[in-house]
Amino acid sequence: MGSNSSNMNHIPDGQQLLQDTGFSAAQIIRLYERFEFLDKDNTGHLRPEDLETVPDLDMNPIGARIIGAFFPPGKETLDFGSFVRILAHFLPADSNRTRAGAQQEPANSTTGKLRFAFQLYDQDRDGKISRDELLQVLRSMLGLQVTEEQLQCIAERAIQEADADKDDAISFDEFRKSLEKVDIDHKMSIRFLR
Amino acid sequence: MTWLHFLSVSITVWLTLLFVFTIVPAVLGVSIGIRRLYLTTLLKIFEWATLRMEMEAKEKNQQLYKPYSSGIIVKEPPLSLQQGIQELRGSASCLHSEPEFEMADIFYFCRRGVESIVDDEVTKRFSAQELETWNLLTRSHYNFRHISLRLTVLWGLGVLIRYGILLPLRVTLAATGISLILVLTTLVGFLPSRELRFFLTEKVHVMCYRICVRSLTAMITYHNRENKPKNGGICVANHTTPIDVIILANDGCYSLIGQAHRGLLGMVQRAMVKSSPHIWFDRSEVKDRHLVAKRLSDHVADKTKQPILIFPEGTCINNTSVMMFKKGSFEIGCTVYPVAIKYDPLFGDAFWNSSKFGMVNYLLRMMSSWAIVCSVWYLPPMNREEGEDAVQFANRVKAAIAAQGGLVDLIWDGGLKRAKVKDAFKEEQQKLYSKVLVGEQEQGDNKSSEENPEEDKSYHGSANGQ
Q: What is the mean pLDDT of residues A30-47?
């Protein structure tokens, strides 16, 4: 496997990504091709408009939020390294090679995936999903198909179910607890070809 | 003096060879079989080259980068939104019998969204497809590191042959073909007798298209020629490149339809009209759909006129799929003759990526490829059935073409190459999701807000009851 890495000399951060994420060299090369394909004006960076050209994403109800996950507030461009690190959240959890002295939790662990999903809800990144934020997500996913009252009802129920300490917001731990029966690894993983 | 002598001799030899081996057979409609021999030899060379690359890679203990023609992600059968979300909830072993919102629902949309960023069905249709075997063209190449000296020499030889011999040859042929069209169609246009005009037009057209086909070194196999389009109908085909016209016109006379251009193309268009009826629109008329439809119907109603050739996708797609057919040509109500065209990209990819290459650049690339190989299938004629509207008819024809050509049948609009998706698609997704949450019976009930709080209370009631 080590000898594959010499194929990646033209990929920025190639070696680093191989070590940090769980992607194989072949996958990184393939992702780089996709990155270059999306990067229509060949600047080496992606902008939100580049991701918006994907029709499937454009018609996804939370498409804008997903794009937002790649471009945190203040960041207008996305380089290849960040692109891959975010996608690494979606690797199946069993694809981690044991790395000696790995300090950070790998992105594709259950906690890593949960954190990614949590941030889709928690747009202001204050560590809690407020009622407003929940309403916004629901509004995105349902559009004009339900009335305001229905929306409020749904949001109310969801908060009541998950909010353990009754502070009218859902913290990360409460979020994690409410999803403990869900097979997160399966549902938030993409089966990449080897 | 000897240089000049040498030059004139070589040019004479060149032209004689050209004449004997290409133009005369084209005029007579005979095929000597040179192209087939050429292609079989090339195939053997390509396979040898790929084998050598694999051996080299093995020696250096590296992996050959194989372009995944199936994508980056494992393709699973697509689930409907309903199934997807229920599967999600099923894994959480929910006991609630009524549908309601779950925090985990977002995973479904999130995963689909990120999957589409990594690999989606649509955007890759607008760029050339990838090859398994290397065909000695750098434009379709991924494994630069593995070329040995032998392969480089072979590649260099290929470049010399393609640009030094094939390209000038083809350009000469193309020029001959076009000038012949101009001259002969104008001459035929002067003839008084109508029958004679028709007869000669056909001959002239076919001859000129044959020369053009040879100028691209195109090997075309026509299947099911008994289904060839007849007068008073419309011929529809999938669109990959402007060369499609030449490929089809090589085997029959069609009326073309399109915008009137200026310059050389405009001259060709005007010359063509003199001897057979084509439909050229001014730029301003193009927008007027009724005008277009009227001219089409008038042409079709006249049984003596040739079938019209139309490409309903409206834009060039990379020949791995067929995209949405525009319904305009299917509203006219005449017989439709579907044709499927499938190119083999191994000897030269014919797809015109109009955002990457201009027309001249594209033609240059075409003429410096090894060859253009394609198959054309004539499908049995179709008519609009009772109770079928234009869109359904268009989809039926599209499915037939996709099935015959081995292409993926997509509902997406080729116009997505340049425009964004319509909001209607997103609303569709939202509608489906709200059905899962709020239940079928509430659909269309959004206006009466008095009822809803009671319905919701009943949710709460039964939820608490459990």
A: 84
What is the set of domains in chain A, with CATH numbers? Answer: 16-89 (1.10.238.10), 109-193 (1.10.238.10)
pLDDT class of B381 with cuts at 50, 70, 90: very high
Angstrom distance (rounded) from CA B248 to CA B254: 8
Q: ipTM value of the model?
A: 0.87
Render pLDDT for A66-102 as a digit per residue (tens, 0 to 9): 888 888 888 888 888 888 888 888 888 776 554 444 5
Residues of B in contact with A189 (CB under 8 A): 111
| Structural domains in chain B, sorted by start | 149-417 (3.40.1130)
pLDDT at B79 over 70: no
Q: How confident is the model at residue B398 (pLDDT cuts 50, 70, 90)?
A: very high
Interface contact B68-A30, CB threshold 8 A? yes
Query: Which residue from A minimizes the CA distance to B436?
Result: A142
β-pairing, A169-171 with A128-130?
Answer: antiparallel
Q: Which residues of B touch A150 (CB under 8 A)?
A: 438, 452, 456
Contact B428 A154 (CB under 8 A): no
